[in-house]
Amino acid sequence: MKQEEYFTQLVREHKSTIYTVCYMFSQDEDEVNDLFQETLINMWKGIDSFREESKISTWIYRVALNTCLLQERKKKKEVKKVPLTMDVNFFQDDDANAAQVRMLHQRIGKLGLVDRALVMMWLEGMSYDEIGAVMGISSQNVGVKLFRIKEQMKKM
Amino acid sequence: MHFEELRNQFAILKDQLKKQEIVSDHLLRETMKAKKRNINSTKRMCYACVVIALGLTPLNYHLQTWSLPFSIVTCLMMLFCAVATYYIHKPVDDLNFLTDDFATVARVMAKFKKQYDQWLYYVTPVICIPWISWAFYEYAWKRAPEGVSPWFMCIPLVFGLIIGLIIGLYFHFKAVNAAQDIIDQIDEQ
């Protein structure tokens, strides 16, 4: 399979994971759009460095999180912006589902960036080993951190 | 806060996203046009200075501005700076900011910042103070024409020194601050 085809398939399969990460690290629709596109660019640039020993979903999570955490907000964008193809706007829509999603966004948004990433992966149902592989920490450390975050969230 | 509620809200989000197309062919095509960026301007600046200095030093010797020992020492010093720059930057060059884990990125950036600071506070004075003193002696005291004070001859060197200091500090802090920003992002807690 050609690399372009493989990349396209990969993005289509994992689009909702990428969107979720970008959404949780953004304040508005434009920012989600920017982060989403930036993540795709970084995935495309880094696709050669993907090593088969880790799961592709772990790699995608890592690229998406690193893009959101490490991106230099002021740097020039080198590509033309293309809007995402979506019928819903979680920042503006009034229906019950969008309201629930906004509530989730607000709750997770109160956490620090790294804690936010940990909680997202936990909600995604990833194992402690997988979360540890993304963050570069041991699974025990993931457990300790998540326990601390949950305690912190209970007080919110 | 009820975590079950949080999980439900997350499930709603995933369910809503599943129904969305999100990615268009146009977006994918634009993405694949992107080229790799090189962010390492400080390193490039350092290498450019070394190349210029290595070119100009023999010329200055030929024009009898500097003595042969001073020219040789200057060239050696420049080569040492180039090697040190390569050594300090190599772990950062090897790092893949997008696919390496946070702990690795933070560790490499912390080491990079520490080495840059050590270079500024310890190595630079040890190398630069004797070299600059020697340059002043070579240029002002050895070459001052009769009737011209060596102190007057120092003026262009002082200007050069100030400009060099400003440029050097600008690039130093640019690199160090960039590293610190990344460390802060990761260690935000």
Note down, in words, how this protein is organized.
The complex is a heterodimer of chains A (156) and B (189). Chain A has helices at residues 3-24, 29-46, 56-70, 96-109, 113-123, 128-135, 139-154. Helix content of chain A is 67%, strand content 0%. Chain A is flat, with a radius of gyration of 16 Å. In chain A, helix 6 packs across helix 7. Chain A has a single domain (3-76, 90-154), classed as Orthogonal Bundle (Rna Polymerase Sigma Factor, Chain: A). With 156 residues, chain A is mostly helical. Chain A starts with a helix and ends with a helix. With 189 residues, chain B is mainly alpha-helical. Chain B has one domain. Chain B has 6 helices and no strands. The longest helix of chain B is centred in the middle third of the chain and has 40 residues, at 102-141. The radius of gyration of chain B is 26 Å and the shape is elongated. The relative contact order of chain B is 0.08. Chains A and B meet through helix 1, helix 2, helix 3, helix 4 and helix 5 of A and helix 1, helix 2, helix 5 and helix 6 of B.
